[in-house]
Amino acid sequence: MPLDDDLKNLITYGEKNIELLFKFYIEIEDKKYIVEYKIVIGKTENNTIEILNETIKYSIFIEEDKRWKNTQTLIETPFSEDIIKLKKYNKNFSNEIDLLKILVIQGISKKMRVSSIFSEEIKVFLKDNTDLIYIIEALEYYGNLNLFIVSNKEIGMITLNLLLPLKIKNLNSCGDLPIQIDKNESIIVNQLIYPSVENAINEINIVLKRIIPDLQLKIEEQRKETLPDGNTNIIADLRSVREGKPISLRYESEGIKRIISILGVLIAGYNQPSVCLAIDELDSGIFEYLLGEILEVLSSEIKGQLIFTSHNLRILEKIDKKNIVFSTTNPENRYIRFKYIKPNNNLRDMYLRELIIQEQAEQLYKETKQSDIKRAFYKVR
């Protein structure tokens, strides 16, 4: 899948590129890896983006010595004859390597804004049963099936009552089911995975009725349609049910629609260590007390990862202090953890105190004066 051109907005004004670094812990049978994947994204003269560099580094756990091996570079792009001939890279490429084909594939990948390292065409030239191929396939599987991202775009679609992306994840299927709440509650599902969708909604209902009493989801098949390729889709309606009465999802509050949208993958993350869910503005529209109750349960019990941003201070009282990172006003050091926290400290009180006294290493908030704000309003009368 090509990189979204909106990623150019991540590049700081005046800079030419941005470097993103991700670290993973991977277990494959009896092997354990710590893997670093780095990607450098640049802005072109045409104001689009391109991938300038990709690197995979890794460290493997030596069971006999009970230690981690020093980090090594497994592969990096852009490919060139000099790079491929290096011993540390050459061991991963097959003897039938065709440099010209690799360079052509690399050029096409760059133009299409897709990864060279993860392309199927490049994998043809890699040796089987190597650490590199194991790691590439593990990262692909993770990205396709276990990584879920909820962006502000999705929040906007829910707020405007246009679309509710129902995220599901179980053993048989995963992904987003777009529900058109602006017109009706119809969803289109391939007949082969429809039973998995029904099962996912049943799982959501088990938790949903404990979060929002008397609320359930109900899916009803309306009709089938046969596609030109011979596959069959099922068109179904999805509605909320309260006290036995069906209600259109568009009439539910924004917070309830958000909870419904992400609950399927929250359940998966609660039970599966390999699931990661990243949510922007998690607190948007959700009742503060209810949000705190949900996060308190997840904070102590979740097996997977939940990464989110929020402005709600109640969260500071419900999540373990070591799991909270604060944004700062310093672009060179944008995120920090609080220091000097005692076991009996209330992090919410500490945060509010820090906004005024500024005892931490970085400033969290540029001070404003109420009198200046009042004067500014007065001037524009």
Radius of gyration: 25 Å
Distance, first to last CA: 52 Å
Shape: globular
Poorly predicted ranges: none
Give the SSE order as H and E letters. Answer: EEEEEHHHHHEHEEEHEEEHEHEEEHH
Mean pLDDT: 88
- State which percent range the strand residues make up: 25-35%
Query: Number of DSSP strands?
Result: 16
Sheet with the most strands, sense and barrel status:
5 strands, antiparallel
Number of domains: 2
What structural class do the secondary elements suggest? alpha+beta
Individual helix count: 11
The percent range for helix content is: 25-40%
Descriptive report:
The protein is α+β, with helices and mostly antiparallel strands. The protein has 2 domains: 5-147, no CATH class; 151-297, no CATH class. The protein has helices spanning 81-85, 87-90, 99-112, 120-123, 131-146, 152-159, 194-211, 254-271, 288-301, 347-357, 370-379, and strands at 17-28, 31-43, 49-62, 67-68, 72-77, 147-150, 164-169, 174-179, 186-190, 215-226, 232-242, 245-247, 276-279, 305-308, 326-327, 335-336. The strands form 5 sheets. Strands 1, 2, 3, 4 and 5 form a 5-stranded antiparallel β-sheet that branches. Strands 9, 10, 11 and 12 form a 4-stranded antiparallel β-sheet that branches. A 3-stranded parallel β-sheet has the order 6-13-14. Strand 11 and strand 12 (245-247) form a beta hairpin. The radius of gyration is 25 Å and the shape is globular.
